[in-house]
């Protein structure tokens, strides 16, 4: 039996990424380390699928891998700001300890539409247009 890979190898990064309010605020507070951390988080999320578990241990492991002068407390502040500003879905984080968003899931769904995945078995799905379209029309 083949192992099912749910991650994706690449994802779109909008040309206005660095100019959206959330990223500009991160840049103002943390310098270029803010957007760098966000891009690395997105890479980690999409490598694993459409969400990642997040807490103190994951934060520690993540900053050790990312490097670039990003420390644990800075990464905590970055994630907290992203949650407060709606970049990540705050309620899902508070309930399950995971980082995801409707936009992240939308991108993942688009990238995996040709795969044979039983979407009804996937955890932590948010209300997205793709989720509503998962049910087969009769």
Give the termini separation.
Answer: 31 Å
Radius of gyration: 16 Å
The chain-level structural class is mainly alpha
Mean pLDDT: 87
User: In order across it, which strands form the biggest sheet?
Assistant: 1-2
Q: Please outline the major beta sheet.
A: 2 strands, antiparallel
Helix fraction bin: 40-55%
**Low-pLDDT residue intervals, each spanning 5 or more residues:** 129-138
Describe the structure in brief:
Helix content is 51%, strand content 3%.
Topology:
Elements: H1 21-30, H2 33-48, E1 52-53, H3 56-66, H4 72-84, H5 90-96, E2 98-99, H6 102-111, H7 129-132
Written account of the structure:
A two-stranded antiparallel sheet has the order 1-2. By secondary structure, the chain is mostly helical. It contains seven helices and two strands. The protein has helices at about 20-30, 35-50, 55-65, 70-85, 90-95, 100-110, 130; strands spanning about 50-55, 100. The model is unreliable at about 130-138 (pLDDT under 50).
């Amino acid at each position: 039996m083949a192992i099912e890979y749910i991650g994706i190898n690449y994802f779109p990064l909008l040309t206005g990424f660095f100019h959206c309010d959330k990223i500009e605020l991160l840049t103002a507070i943390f310098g270029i380390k803010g957007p760098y951390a966000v891009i690395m988080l997105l890479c980690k999320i999409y490598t694993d699928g459409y969400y990642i578990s997040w807490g103190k241990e994951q934060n520690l492991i993540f900053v050790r891998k990312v490097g670039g002068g990003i420390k644990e407390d800075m990464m905590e502040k970055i994630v907290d700001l992203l949650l407060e500003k709606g970049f990540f879905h705050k309620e899902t984080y508070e309930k399950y300890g995971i980082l995801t968003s409707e936009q992240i899931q939308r991108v993942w769904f688009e990238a995996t539409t040709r795969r044979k995945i039983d979407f009804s078995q996937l955890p932590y799905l948010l209300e997205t247009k793709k989720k509503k379209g998962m049910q087969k029309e009769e």
